[in-house]
Amino acid sequence: MRIDIITVLPELLTSPFEASILKRAIEKGLVEIYLHNLRDYATNNYKQVDDYQFGGGAGMVMMVEPIDKCISGLKAERDYDEVIYMTPDGKTLNQSMANELSLKGNLIILCGHYKGVDQRVRDMLVTREISIGDYVLSGGELAAAIVCDAVIRLLPGVLNDETSALTDTFQDNLLAPPVYTRPAEYKGLEVPKILLSGNLPKIEKWRFKTA
Ligand code: ADE
Q: Around Cβ 204, how many Cβ atoms within 10 Å?
């Protein structure tokens, strides 16, 4: 999988890919992440990527031209399955959306800022709009990192134990069962006896019931 992320704040998107599972996925060559600074596609000397909105009103709007230039350049190199726009009024991310996206090959993710993008970007270039929840962030970068995390961990070979993504909370519309590790008793709170019984069928039944 290849993910190209278009942003005015690439520095917000470095650390999520420099640790743990996402880092290893990149090192293993299972996913490639490319960050594109939208300012590099600005069409004037001030590196301007936003402007006042027509009709008046508070807040700047991200201009269509730099975004089109960046996306068209990428599309000239390869085909993309989706151009995703991160926005609070998009469709809310859930596990089935993450599953669906994990089957794609090449994705572009555009991070919104200010009052959002010129509507023509959405009409002309964007194929999918995703929100991570009904609250407003300062920009789409952290939301994009969440989408990437939810998707990349599902790619075959990313998790050591491939079954562990399948038993995640939400994969079967159930929550995960309670889990325990040592010690078996802590401050008077005991691990359920069944988990120490060694009776695997019974343990499975208990896990299903509690999930
Ligand atoms: N940009 C700002 N808020 C957002 C949200 N909740 N989801 C996705 N992108 C956003």
A: 11
Report whether pLDDT(170) > 90: no
CA of 166 to the centre of ligand 1 (A): 27
Angle between helices 141-152 and 20-27 (to 10 degrees): 70
- For residues 155 and 144, what is the distance between their CA atoms, to the nearest angstrom? 17
Going by CA atoms, what residue is nearest to atom 7 of ligand 1?
131
Measured by CA distance, the residue closest to atom 4 of ligand 1 is 88
Query: Which residues' Cβ are closer than 6 Å to ligand 1?
Result: 86-88, 112, 131-133, 135-137, 140, 143
The per-residue pLDDT for 163 is 59
Give the pLDDT mean for 36-45.
96
The fraction of the chain above a pLDDT of 90, given in percent, is 91
